[in-house]
């Protein structure tokens, strides 16, 4: 545990973290982990965070050393996609029982499970996750993994992020540390080149990175490792030979990017593939960093040409939605998704932003949003569900874009809602992703169901006397009479 504590302290001191830079030494030492509220849905433990980051490595077996529920709670909670291997979707756990704990059988059971996986699946590597119970009873996972790796001749990677260590975000970072300590730099590629890059913190949700990769392919840029979306073990093991890194979700893996820069001199930048300007900016930054590291400067011109072509196509497609969406009011309660690029693109087609959360936006992003929003008070860190519901009930928005946890607030207010967080079913990255996002907003807003659910229910309709019924409504009244057997048409009125 002392090595885990040292690692956590090291993570709290991360100099590349923007929030950390604004803190004094004492505040940095306290870290970012907030105590959890008993009874509240905590949003995942450190183990869950580590699993989120590593599970998308698709050809690896992910073995959870824990009682059954830890794996049950964390398995497949995101819609990340694989272009090949399916082993990552098979659930492996040692299923520790009370008897194992009492009899001290944990380490033996873990070793046996590693052997069974090796014999049945022959994966290129096995990732072993520590959790609360084995950490509390003192199972030495690192030693078991080392012994198993020697015995079975394959990498067995310990991921030391037991749930009680802290938040989901801390677990994300501990997963990055596990890659740094045990995986990256352990294989030498024989095809390293000046156009190789790493993408960190890209999860390939709903396969959205596949909307971006063709753009990189056209520029001759090779993604040596995408960590973790659709990743392969050997690609990650040789990620140290990339020339530049783009960090997509900086809160998850900024420590990994900075340490790779320190150790292997790979420069990094934080960027986003959400929105048109976001995607163009990211492509330009990648090209610039590659040139800085020795690539031919002609790539800059080719990048500009590709951006011009793709932006023209995207704006043409978006123009078709302008007449349908102009003046519509959107409330963005995104949390994780980079708000700035989405805000900018939506405003470009005439959508009004009546509020946007900036909780996970960088300081730079907040400045940009402040500049383009009409009212500064349309930016908020977080909004309590009660306030969110009040705002939606007052009809101050036409749609809410958010994560699944707040969807019922919008639905209760009888308002269209679109999932924009990790459980979403549509890819929103790159130019085509932005067009898809706008298409989904259009579909949601114009779905006829909203008109129907907002109508007063028939049982709240005022009775209208037969002789007062307008003659033109006879047909509607007749239909209602059929739907409500036992009630005569004369009893019914207009809704
Ligand atoms: S908090 Fe501990 S016991 Fe609960 S899921 Fe996380 S690792 Fe498992």
Overview features:
495 residues, alpha/beta, Rossmann fold, 4-stranded parallel sheet, disordered C terminus, binds iron/sulfur cluster, NifE-like, NifE, nitrogenase activity, nitrogen fixation
The molecules bound to the chains, other than polymers, are: iron/sulfur cluster
Class per helix and strand makeup: alpha/beta
- CA-based gyration radius: 26 Å
CATH topology-level name of the largest domain: Rossmann fold
Low-confidence stretches: 469-495
Can you describe what's shown?
The protein has 495 residues and is of the alpha/beta class. It has four domains: 33-182, Nitrogenase molybdenum iron protein domain (Rossmann fold), CATH 3.40.50.1980; 196-317, 3-Layer(aba) Sandwich (Rossmann fold); 322-452, Rossmann fold (3-Layer(aba) Sandwich); 458-491, no CATH class. The chain contains 23 helices and 13 strands. It has helices spanning 2-12, 18-21, 25-30, 46-54, 68-74, 98-103, 106-121, 132-137, 141-152, 168-182, 213-218, 233-237, 250-264, 276-292, 298-319, 322-325, 339-348, 363-372, 385-393, 407-412, 430-445, 449-454, 474-483; strands spanning 61-64, 92-93, 126-129, 156-159, 196-202, 222-228, 244-247, 268-270, 329-333, 352-357, 379-380, 399-402, 417-419. The strands form three sheets. A five-stranded parallel β-sheet has the order 11-10-9-12-13. Helix 17 (339-348) packs parallel to helix 18 (363-372). The longest helix is centred in the middle third of the chain and has 22 residues, at 298-319. The radius of gyration is 26 Å and the shape is globular. The protein starts with a helix and ends in a 12-residue tail after the last helix. The structure holds iron/sulfur cluster (SF4). Keywords: Nitrogen fixation. Belongs to the NifD/NifK/NifE/NifN family. One of its GO terms (molecular function) is nitrogenase activity.
């Amino acid at each position: 545990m002392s090595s885990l504590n040292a690692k956590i302290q090291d993570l709290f001191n991360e100099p590349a973290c923007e929030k950390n830079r604004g803190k004094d030494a004492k505040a940095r030492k306290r870290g970012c982990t907030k105590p959890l509220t008993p009874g509240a849905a905590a949003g995942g433990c450190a183990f869950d965070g580590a699993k989120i980051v590593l599970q998308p490595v698709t050809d690896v077996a992910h073995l959870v050393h824990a009682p059954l529920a830890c794996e049950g709670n964390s398995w497949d909670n995101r819609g990340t996609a694989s272009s090949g291997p399916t082993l990552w979707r098979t659930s492996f756990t040692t299923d520790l029982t009370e008897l194992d704990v009492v009899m001290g059988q944990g380490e033996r059971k873990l070793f046996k499970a590693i052997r069974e996986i090796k014999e049945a699946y022959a994966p290129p590597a096995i990732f072993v996750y520590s959790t609360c119970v084995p950490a509390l009873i003192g199972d030495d996972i690192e030693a078991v993994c080392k012994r198993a790796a020697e015995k079975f001749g394959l990498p067995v990677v310990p991921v030391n992020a037991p749930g009680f260590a802290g938040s989901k975000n801390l677990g994300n970072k501990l997963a990055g540390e596990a890659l740094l300590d045990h995986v990256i730099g352990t294989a030498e590629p024989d095809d390293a080149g000046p156009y190789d890059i790493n993408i960190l913190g890209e999860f390939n949700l709903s396969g959205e990175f596949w909307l971006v990769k063709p753009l990189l392919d056209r520029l001759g840029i090779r993604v040596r490792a995408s960590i973790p979306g659709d990743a392969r073990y050997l690609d990650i093991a040789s990620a140290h030979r990339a020339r530049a890194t783009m960090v997509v979700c900086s809160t998850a893996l900024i420590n990994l990017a900075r340490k790779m820069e320190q150790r292997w001199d790979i420069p990094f930048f934080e960027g986003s593939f959400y929105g048109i300007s976001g995607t163009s900016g990211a492509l330009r930054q990648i090209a610039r960093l590659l040139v800085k590291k020795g690539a031919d400067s002609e790539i800059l011109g080719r990048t500009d040409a590709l951006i011009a072509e793709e932006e023209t196509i995207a704006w043409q497609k978006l123009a078709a939605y302008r007449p349908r969406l102009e003046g519509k009011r959107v409330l963005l309660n995104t949390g994780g998704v980079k708000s700035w690029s989405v805000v900018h693109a939506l405003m470009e087609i005439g959508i009004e932003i009546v509020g946007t959360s900036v909780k996970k936006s960088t300081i730079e992003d907040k400045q940009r949003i402040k500049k383009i929003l009409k009212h500064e008070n349309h930016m908020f860190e977080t909004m309590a569900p009660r306030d969110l519901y009040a705002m939606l009930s007052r009809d101050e928005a036409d749609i809410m874009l958010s994560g699944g946890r707040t969807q019922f607030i919008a639905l209760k207010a009888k308002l269209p809602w679109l999932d924009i967080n990790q459980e979403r079913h549509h890819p929103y990255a790159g130019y085509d992703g932005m067009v898809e996002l706008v298409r989904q907003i259009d579909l949601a807003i114009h779905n006829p169901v909203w008109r129907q659910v907002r109508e007063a229910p028939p049982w709240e309709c005022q009775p209208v006397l037969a002789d007062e019924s307008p003659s033109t409504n006879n047909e509607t009244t007749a239909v209602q009479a059929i739907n409500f057997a036992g009630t005569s048409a004369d009893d019914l009125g207009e809704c």
